Amino acid sequence: MLKKTITTLLLSVLSLLAVAQNDMLTAYRNAIPGGYQFWVYAPEEYCIEPEPIPLVVFLHGASLRGRDLEKVRKYGPLQAINMGRPIPALILAPQNPSGSWNPEKIDQVVEWTKEHYQVDASRIYVLGMSLGGYGTLDYAGTYPHKVAAAMALCGGSTLRNKQGLGDLPLWIIHGTADKAVSINESKKVVEALQQTHHDERLRFDWLPGASHGALARIFYLDKTYIWLFSHSLDEEGRPVNREITIDKSDLPDAYDDIQRREDKLYIEQK
Following CA atoms 149, 132, 174, 265 in sequence, which dihedral angle do they give, to the nearest 10 degrees? Predict the structure, then answer.
């Protein structure tokens, strides 16, 4: 066990482009040649004693595209952790330099993370918003055997064959007042799964009067991660959790139970 732990730590150190850490939180920065650059956040308990742990893949929207990886911390799980929301998982946050998310390139960073960290392969989750919502559905529909559950916010899908999305627990959420990405984009996915009878594991909610940006608050809700973590590839039949609800009334209070922290997630080491 000790030898395996030391080997894992050495591999991580040798592969770093930059490391950001303090006494409480640790995040590593890296890149795949010809692919995406990305952050990997590791919770404190994992850094102390690495053991298999869930992996959450966060896919950002179009406004965070580019080659400045700092932008990926503007919203989403990394910022939620920085604010004080405990998320007991590795967080993988790639950056898309331009265009749409590429499922194969997303999978490259997922596989890299599995090689360099002790990931519980039965508990890999994907969530994203806007362009990241498209990326979430495109990745989950391409690799449904790898994703324990997915949540897509105000997005859609470019997949011609969407049947793979019916193979995993999936939650699609869109606001009815979204002027950036029409709610019809999400409805097309839902209708395609319903028409082919691949909607057994599908959940969808249309939040009345919710704007495009309002759904970003879902990343800060504790029950977002409780819902994700309630699923596993090992669960027989892979049923979707329908007990947890998220509606528009949750959004104004998304930050209320977060215990804000003064220390920051990233302190660059030159």
Answer: 80
* 3-state percent breakdown (helix, strand, coil) of the chain, nearest 5: 35, 20, 40
Kindly list the distances between the CA atom of residue 262 and the CA atoms of 28, 47, 217, 239, in Å, as whole numbers in the listed order: 20, 20, 21, 40
Q: What are 20-29's pLDDT values in tens digits?
A: 433 345 788 9
Predicted confidence band at 69 (pLDDT cuts at 50, 70, 90)? very high
Residue 261: which pLDDT band, with cuts at 50, 70 and 90?
Answer: low
**Residue positions counted in the chain:** 270
Q: Rounded to two decimals, what is the model's pTM?
A: 0.88
Q: What are the backbone dihedrals phi and psi of residue 32, each rounded to the nearest 5 degrees, phi first?
A: -95, 125
CA angle 59, 62, 65 (to 5 degrees): 80
Which carries the bigger pLDDT value, residue 26 or residue 167?
A: 167
Query: 149 near 119, Cβ under 8 Å?
Result: no
pLDDT the model gives residue 25: 59
State the first-to-last Cα distance of the chain, in angstroms, to the nearest integer: 31
Alpha-carbon gap, residue 61 to 96, rounded angstroms:
9
Beta-ladder partners of 58? 127
Kindly state the DSSP code that residue 149 receives in the 8-state scheme. Answer: E
Q: What count of Cα atoms within 13 Å lies in the side-chain half-sphere of residue 196?
A: 15
Planar angle of CA 157, 201, 72, nearest 5 degrees: 45
